[in-house]
Amino acid sequence: xxxxxxxxxxxxxxxxxxxxxxxxxxxxxxxxxxxxxxxxxxxxxxxxxxxxxxxxxxxxxxxxxxxxxxxxxxxxxxxxxxxxxxxxxxxxxxxxxxxxxxxxxxxxxxxxxxxxxxxxxxxxxxxxxxxxxxxxxxxxxxxxxxxxxxxxxxxxxxxxxxxxxxxxxxxxxxxxxxxxxxxx
Length: 184
Known about the structure:
Layout (H helix, E strand, L loop, with lengths): L6 H19 L2 H8 L4 E7 L5 E6 L7 H10 L14 H13 L5 E5 L4 H10 L14 E6 L4 H11 L3 E5 L4 E5 L4 E2 L1
Parallel strand pairs: 1-3, 5-7
Antiparallel strand pairs: 1-2, 3-4, 4-6, 5-6
């Protein structure tokens, strides 16, 4: 009697076992972000205008156009009142940061989008303002989180490895952007 082996079934069983083994290696917080069916929420307060916005988003989805429009207005250059569509990748980074830190506290926005004129003016007055800043491309933000040590924010952002991370302890903020992974 000849026995036939179903190789297709074995492939699927092996793939399933490998997947289970791989998820066992993920940190529990990473699994939570993948497996949750509840939306995550972000509360962002612009410290320059006093405006704030709370929005929800399901993990693994993008900010919808209406939310992005509201967020871009919140992130506007408060000096010139100019607005540019903010890179949604920043909000993905913030959601991941909240999960990593295990907090849902207000994010205090210090600087979001900056018009080129504003950036050039700041370059003339302050050191450390980049000529081609990611702020002028609507791909950066400077912030802190209410009640969370700045060094903890920086360390968590470094673990995420999702763009640039600048640490400004004396000025009390962390810079993140959606450019290449780098740190200063």
